Predict the structure of Putative sulfate exporter family transporter.
Amino acid sequence: MSDQPLIPQRITAHPLPLAGLGRGALRVLPGLALCGGVTAAAYGFEAGEAHLFGRAWLEALVLAILVGTAVRTAWTPGTRFRAGITFGAKQMLEVAVALLGLSISFRTLADVGPGLLFGIAGVVTLAIPMSFGICRLLGLPKRMAVLVACGNSICGNSAIAAVAPVIGADGDDVAASIAFTAVLGVLVVLGLPFFGAALGLSQLRFGALAGLTVYAVPQVLAAAAPVGPAAVQIGTLVKLVRVLMLGPVVLVLSMLASRLRDETDETAPAVTAGDRPKPGHVPIHRMVPPFILAFLAFATLRSAGLVPAAALVPTATVANVLTILSMAALGLGVDVRVVAKAGLRVTGAVTLSLAALGALSLGLIRVLGLA
């Protein structure tokens, strides 16, 4: 038997997953706090409007975008705020959209008939080549034209992010497209209610127009909320059907990827073989975002009467607050100076493409004879 004293073995402490979660939470806190401040200001302005004018002409959803954009224009948040702002504009937004499914019934879409579903697919199918043609006529490179066309016609930044790796777009094109889409998206949200009022559109018609033309789901909510609850419901459903068109579009573009990569009017970006997506091989999460599936699942439960009535008001309140917080985050990511830097060709291409989408959408609404 050894005379040496027993020395306890050193136990190596392995970091717990919760520690990583804690560090992640701390990293997003500054940005989320900034989003919370913008949200509080939006609620304050809404209350001020109601006190002065008897009603809030601009709701907190829209005001959060405006206040966030004003803050971003006057001051660029530092790096410590970026993680939280990004979290608010993406993950928090996705949770909010998923929860919105509990306030939506598919009966609303069924009431307008299957013609609207086929019409939405038709509008997207026509809008993409029209927008692409406009961009090319104004001299935009092919890949940039594809990004603008898909962003305008389907779902803005999400479509651009999904399409970019498939067609081999470079970082500058992607950044310019996303930044410009963010600015134009705010302008559309602010201007569309006035446009709808000038045309005398009903809630159903305006909701369909918002769902067919506005870029992001929460922006549809912001544009439709001043018009009425029916506009919000039909706008949300139409917009989500439009988002589902992203899958087929990405598949088609993946088959045409080699032609877009081999174009001669611009220098192809440096992409390694490992990073280059294979034609026809597109990750499923890029074609159908998980939060859309969650929304559809919740809407199915609501339509089937499986959601307790007592749960509807609390979840709607949570979804509304999260949506306004995400609007604040989106506003904090908008730099209006991008429009000045973009040049007349890009500005004209994006604006004319959006006008073409609006014309197609109004044509569909008229053909369907929505009440």
Summary: The radius of gyration is 23 Å. Residues 88-256+282-368 form one domain. Confidence is low (pLDDT under 50) at residues 1-14, 267-280.
